[in-house]
Amino acid sequence: SVGSSNFEVGDEILINQRMDAKDWALLLLLSFLWGGSFFLIDVIVLELPPLTIVTLRVGIAAIVLWTVLLIKGYEVPKSFKLWRAFLMLGLLNNVIPFSLIVWGQNHIGAGLAAIINASTPLFTVLIAGAFLVDEHMTPQKVIGVLVGLFGVGVLIGADAFAELGLNMSLTTLAQLAILGAAISYGCASVFGRRFKSLGVSPFSTAVGQVTAATIILLPMSYIVERPDQLANPSLVTGLAIVCLGVFCTALGYLLYFQILSSSGATNVVLVTFLVPVTAAFLGWLILGEQLHGRYVSGMVLIGLGLAAIDGRPWEKLRAVLR
């Protein structure tokens, strides 16, 4: 999931803006891990309910990241104010979007879920423009957001909009759930800006958020789904859960912050375009999911919208045409 955790949106610092071969390799690996998370969820939802899956995902990731934190000797966050902020971030960046994505993937495929989730940067720009004084909306951003949102509409399809009301199909609700996850990620990006001013390292923020998310989810999943009364998952599902927590979540965060520190937030967000490709490919190759033409068209429009927001692709194109 791209979720993914853009804590530094709008706070770009003076670092190397050109990605070297190592950073590109890490970015491709990250896209494979986060794209693979959608594929793994498609496997796990066949045996386990949504909240239980999300609780296991963040719980396993928290154990791994705490182990790394203690081995490396990083400072352990202690203040009440900080942990209160972690709880909100964990809610916005893990609990809500992970739960919506897992529930949505009960009814739609991994590829489509990942493509809709690629709209996260669009909502980040909208929310940041509304709440952050240094992230004002510009005509270029407005055009980019409108093009991208049109792409989301193409993805979901005209039939879904005709169903809006009390009689929406589960497929339409599932697509709207993934869209809700993207909006939640956007809110998390804006909220997460405060951790820089609090002097908290990105790695400690990642540890804090998955720990806080686990604290929130443990009682929720027990009350709602009673996982202690569920049948034991199969070996394949168990391995998928471990991979989801250890590789897609814990290792994914470590790779994300490595790229963020070396190449910056603008470059690391490129993973947004690569994740749907990985998820769609795995879903098609292993699960036999179909990719409709409108999925590709919608993804292209989202990409054009994000390119307009970023501005760099258009500047390079103008430079070539001169």
What's the gist of this structure?
The chain is mostly helical and 322 residues long.
- Percent of residues in helices comes to over 70%
What ranges have pLDDT less than 50 throughout 5 or more consecutive residues?
1-17
* Count of helical regions: 15
Quaternary state of the chains: single chain
Structural class: mainly alpha
Describe this structure in words.
It is a single chain. The protein contains 15 helices and no strands. The protein is mainly alpha-helical. α2 packs across α3. The radius of gyration is 19 Å and the shape is globular. The N terminus is likely disordered.
Tell me the layout of helices and strands.
Layout: H1 21-44, H2 50-72, H3 80-104, H4 110-117, H5 120-131, H6 139-156, H7 158-162, H8 170-191, H9 194-197, H10 202-225, H11 235-263, H12 265-268, H13 271-287, H14 293-310, H15 312-321
Protein traits:
322 residues; 15 helices; disordered N terminus; globular; mainly alpha
